[in-house]
Request: fold
Amino acid sequence: KDGLMLMNRVRNGVVAWNRSMSVVPTTKLFINGKFVDSKTEDWIDVHNPATNEVVTRVPKATEAEMLQAVASAKEAFKKWSQLSILSRQQVMFRYQDIIRKNMKELAKSITTEQGKTLIDAEGDVLRGLQVVEHCCSVTSLQLGETLPNISKDLDTYSYRLPLGVTAGITPFNFPAMIPLWMFPVAIVLGNTSVIKPSERDPGACMMLMELLNEAGCPPGVVNVIHGAREAVSFICDNPDIKAISFVGSDQAGKYIYERGSLNGKRVQSNMGAKNHGVVMPDANKENTLNQLVGAAFGAAGQRCMALSTAVFVGEAQQWLPDLVLRAKALKVNAGHVPGTDFGPVISAHAKNRICDLIQSGIDEGAKCVLDGRGLRVPGFEKGNFIGPTILTDVKTNMKCYKEEIFGPVLITLHVDTLDEAVELINENPYGNGTAIFTTNGATARKFTNTIDVGQVGVNVPIPVPLPMFSFTGTRGSFMGDAHFYGKQGVNFYTQVKTVTQMWRESDVTHSKAAVSMPV
Ligand code: NAD
Reply:
């Protein structure tokens, strides 16, 4: 089945069979509107996380290829930035339609390379598609400001203009959504773009390029290079790249923010997280437990907004056994198997790291009330599976609390009051997301007012804002000034030019130069 899918993608020009590598296809670069074979000798294997079979090989693009991609974006910028805004809008109208029609194909690629379930992979595409849909309203989003008669016969107006060549560097966990947070916003505003997708699952991004061609986007407006740290450093240093959007881990995010900023670029870095869900004893028990389980274990916990830490307040702690029962009932299997709740984690390395963090929790005194290590999935014995795992009695000085686990592991803490819960969360260095479960409006209001986290849910476990707002993670989860998509995304990808003009009906001739400021 996977082979058939790959054949399909080969036919579509997304990947090519490389004869010297028997049946393993290679992923191409996308430069100036064409899918091209890399000349590199350095390749990265992409494994299907459910089987660990190699599904494609990704090139570490050569310096010359990366320069070509930037040159192509720079050249395309000349015409693209001058194209009428209505023409750019038309590309987005067509693009959103084409993505919607290809959601299932995109989802299949995501499941093969990333491991999440097919339905969750469609959600991955949908959340990116919503950004493209929002980009269709660029005619309102890019409006400038005017103020006539600011002084006698003097008007001031400002435009929002593109920056030039922009770049995007993306993580493995949302192979469609996160590239779609970046290049559609950049290009609809008149920029061009160079994307470096995650080297662990580039397939969906390549399909998105194919669809972009179909939507009539001119060659060079978006280009894709592949690689790891060297490609990232190239992007940080290349003087023709004016802005970098990054989503991924803390280590890479800080490196890119610092190196890119030092080179005078705008950088927005969305990084790691530790999202707490506060469970009040007055919450709707049934809904809360279901929401907690869904948000902790969905996508095998590999979401930056996964609700990975539950804070039970007072008597809510007594719901733990029910929580365990619900988590235990989840079905773990390969993502394409019907009825699967969540699939494998991305790699054997990630699996080991997660298992080590679970063990560290036990060693430091936490109780493992549900242990998913050692899970075997019949038919997929080589896959990177971990079953749902719950650690209780966790303390804030434990490694499993301090580090982002990014796996199907829910850790739980217990406090006596809402104030204690708020204090605990505010002391955590991350500020990506949080949620409270309660039926009391005053409790919810107090929580939203006092919590120092950028995205807050009230009876909403994963409060990711839709694209008319922006993705507003804060503190340790974000570096930069303007967030992704929404108005802040527009600000990130534009610079303001302000024109002050004077037109008088009859010319006034000044007898001498005015050397002092007007008073
Ligand atoms: P990652 O940092 O390993 O990789 C992200 C990108 O950075 C990739 O393209 C990779 O090639 C590059 N990269 C990796 N290590 C690098 C290094 N040392 N130097 C330079 N570049 C490097 O992240 P990942 O494992 O793919 O993704 C998971 C992480 O992303 C988690 O921490 C998760 O919380 C975070 N994430 C955050 C958000 C958000 O919006 N805050 C969204 C999704 C994922």
About this structure: Residues 169-174, 196, 198-199, 228-229, 232, 247-249, 251-252, 255, 270-273, 304, 404, 406, 432, 471, 473, 477 surround nicotinamide-adenine-dinucleotide (CB under 6 Å). The two ends are 77 Å apart (CA to CA). The longest strand covers residues 154-162. The mean pLDDT is 95.
